[in-house]
Design brief:
Layout: H1 15-23, H2 46-51, H3 80-89, E1 97-99, E2 118-123, E3 130-135, E4 143-145, H4 164-168, H5 182-191, H6 208-214, E5 216-224, H7 225-233, E6 244-245, H8 247-257, E7 266-270, H9 273-290, H10 319-329, E8 338-339, H11 343-351, E9 356-359, H12 375-382, E10 386-389, H13 394-403, E11 407-412, E12 422-424, E13 427-430
Parallel strand pairs: 5-7, 6-8, 7-9, 9-10
Antiparallel strand pairs: 1-13, 2-3, 4-10, 4-12, 5-11, 11-13
Helix pairs in contact: 9-10
Length: 431
Amino acid sequence: MNRGEGVNEDPTGSFMVAITEYLGSPAEMPTTFQHPTRKSEFLPTLQEIIDTEKPEGAPKEAAWIWGPDDEIGRLNLLTPDHVSSVLSSQARSSGIVCPLNWDVTLPRHPAFARQACRTVVKPFEDVLVNDETLEMNTQSGSQFDGFRHIAFQETGTFYNGVRQDEIAGKRLPEGLGGGDADADAHAHAHAHGEERGRPSKASTRIGIQAAAQHGIVSRGVLLDYARWMKEVKKVEYDPFSRHAIELADILQVAEWEGVQFEKGDVLLVRTGWIEKYMMCLDVVEGENKKKKKDPHASARESTSTVEAASVSSFSRLTKGEAQNELDRASKEHPTAIGLSQSQEMKTFLHDKYFSVVGGDQPAFEVWPGNTFPLLHEYLLACWGVLIGEMLDLEKLGRACKGKGKWDFLFVSALMNIPGGVASLGNAICVL
């Protein structure tokens, strides 16, 4: 079926049925999401979503359009045809591989009071063999937030109507997470064989395993905001401050790079947060690194190599000043650069139909948020868009600049954790 078939010709038809036919999903679309007068694009705009009737308890912006059993959200856009098209378009790649995984021991002290990574090597006693254990918070470093990470706070619903009791395996206190929507939770529990008023058994619905089992292969685009600010705007800013990137900035960077967005794209935004962190870390730990056998070893030679560090004001900090900056980044309630939470940004992120979004900073959106609901609530709970955070975009940024090419093949194999909240990034890009 071609895009638009069965929609434009039938003004009384359901665009959700059209989506089902297009994706080849056997699931029946909920009738409450029908939009009988839809004649515009194939996938609904945010305003069209808002204008459609919703099940009781669902946010008005909820775009749960792939059926009641869907667990992967916008990854539904990554069909075999889509992936094949992306592979064909990137067939003349230069073969440059850019991993996006930051050193798992970074940041040294994660923000939001999260546990830092700890690795322990365990040698065997009678043979030269080693095992290893890894202990960490999956959201302490390079990561993808899954759909269990945050609910839409006003209604208490995670993506596709999942509630906290289904994730945690217990009932919430009366009134927590949606008020009157508690009745819906009881009805849902009854429909799934649970007894009203008794603790429910946790399920794995919308866990990170669903996205992991689907896989992420798509066209990626990098918007190098940090480079654009330096080379075009010639403005210095502090990535550790509450610096909001507005939609006008995003569009200007895209125009500067010659990027045209396509449905299913993985949107990556480089803000310079990791660049600053590595500069400060190099100042603080540089003396120890210089004592290594390799006299040239430094933070700039890691996979997070910092380009032209000598010209940045952050590289001229004293050791004490650099440590103070690292302490700022490690606060339980930090400030950080990110995308604006404006209505126009929200509409842009929805209507462009990105499959995944991500950046090199702790929250993707500007932090702390001063407009609620947060972008996290819309992206994860309403639209089913995975969010990448603290992805190492330094090598990718240099490669894109060197090639004059800002789109590439993006691949990620997430951790297959049943019921998982998040995953290590485990992503690579190929230019």
